[in-house]
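Quick one:
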Amino acid sequence: MSSDPIRRDIEQRARRALISYAIFRWESAVIIGLTILLAIFYPQPFPWWRWWAWLVIGAVAEIAIIVTSLTDERTGQQVVEDLFEEEHSPRAIRSAEYRQQYEKARDYRRQIKQTVQSMPAGPLRERLERAGQGVADWVAHIYELACRLDRYAGNAVIARDMRAVPDELKQLEGRYRLEDDAGVRAELSRAIEQKRAQIDNLRQLQNTMETAQLRLEATLTALGTVYSQVLLAAAKGGEGAGAEQLAADIKEQTAALQDLIKAMDEVLK
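Output:
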């Protein structure tokens, strides 16, 4: 299992969603309804028949539907895709700038997936499919990054402190220079230390957010490059020797974003 917490969460949610889908399929509803009706209104079609036999048959049919749903690759892919879209909706991002950047990443992912699916079956498609699986993790991290930047940009308290705290520090330092009373000077000294610590934290936060903004732009460029490489590989065909390197590049980008998100969470505590 992946060590990436976002990936683990998606995998766990996908399994639960797939089980729920299997249970609540319309075929399941038909089987359950038909089983109940037969058991009540037609309990003994043959002299040797027992009413509970309908329940056994219905249970076997229901289990068959669930197993089929869980093992069908196409159904699984569609459930995962629906879950991804639900869990990473751009509507949750209030900033138009960050929402547009995420939508761009999501569009790249969609185009990469469609390009690979349109290729003829073979080693190249299989390798690109494996490489493309990492793109979902990558885009999920871009979503997390955009959400954090969005929360930072919309935080009125941080914006206020950025403007006010440096002036408050200057005022305290001015009062300290003019104060004669030792007790008051001691209190002012402690207040000055606290303000300086607050400024250091605000600067660290600002630097982290600026780094995140730059990384968001850079990773979108890298994702666009991957899309171009997939198009080129699809056009050239061959055995797809470069797909392994492509997968490694995707993994590297995803890991870098994961580390940045952890750093952002530390300063946003």
